[in-house]
Amino acid sequence: MENGKYKIEIGSPPTGSLPTGEGGGRGRLASLLQSKIDNLNKPKGSLGRLESLALQIGLIQQTLSPKLTHPCHILFGGDHGIEREGVSFSPREVTWQQMINYGKGGGGVNMFCRQHGFKLLVVDAGVDYDFPEEKYPHIIQRKVGYGTRNFLHEPAMTQEEFDRCHAIGAEQVEACHKEGCNIISFGEMGIGNTSPSSVIMHLFLDIPLVNCVGAGSGLSSDGVKHKYEVLNASIANYFATLPKNYDTAYTIRYFFGYEMACAVGGMLRAAELGMIILVDGFIMTACMLAASKLNKNVMDYAIFGHCGDEGGHKLMLDAMHAEPLLNLGLRLGEGTGALCAYPIVQSAVNMLNEMDNFSHAEITKYF
Fold this sequence. Notes:
Blueprint: H1 26-38, H2 48-61, E1 72-78, H3 93-103, H4 108-116, E2 119-126, E3 139-141, H5 159-178, E4 183-189, H6 194-205, H7 209-212, H8 221-240, H9 248-255, H10 258-272, E5 276-279, H11 282-294, E6 302-304, H12 313-319, H13 336-354, H14 358-361
Parallel strand pairs: 1-2, 1-4, 2-3, 4-5, 5-6
Helix pairs in contact: 1-2, 2-13, 4-13, 5-10, 6-11, 10-11
């Protein structure tokens, strides 16, 4: 089900038009791109996933010669009411402590952004802590609340709060786009956010909840069992109070954190602007799943960076027919897996633009 409020103009074709002489229409462009890929001086299909990536990126940018410019990474922070139920190994204060740490450049996300030339934006969407601007200038102040409500008992956020998060995500993406960004990734910092991700995965993909619940930041087997029981009770309460006129947005806001709702808004706006979206691990895949339920065409713009080590992530990716680029056992979050995948995306673009073809290189085309 799609909520009409979020049926923005994305999908087919993406924003922009074909340069003169490159044909017309998405189908025509796909044929031209595939022909260019097949005629590079290599055995047909020999560069595997790079070839399908190049095709996707060419379609997103509506050109036979795509490029990646001014990559940006937006990390949203927020706390979760459900964390009060003991569903996370890490304490709540780690959220704000890590948000501060990013300003010192000491996080995993900082390292990978430096390595791959990404601009990092750190946004307080709903952390249960105050960040005075004069003391923490690296944190963009957009606090919707001091953590969401506890979805064991009530919706995590109101419709107004969800709309604000949607607008915040769009605003941050627009700022990056105005600086020339055409490839963007998202990260999160929010203790407890594997819980709403597990619930949304269960509800939207009809996967048994027990298969969606994992250890998060390090729960024991007893901790995972408790987490499952809390989430199962939360879902029962959700169905018991479900209004007759509910929509997809209601389900998302019932469980999601502020930082996750911001990422959903950012993903939808990025797609509308014709940007490539690098998707990170379990939480950001759940955000892309939610975004796709608001507008299915957003998936055309998504490149899934990696399959993480959280229990349900592979199941969620498989159910979404998403093919991740990496499988490194990562479960840090912050968007680090998406950033690690960036060089592969760059290789796909370089292949399309820099490899010679059979005719020009005077090599016999043998297929």
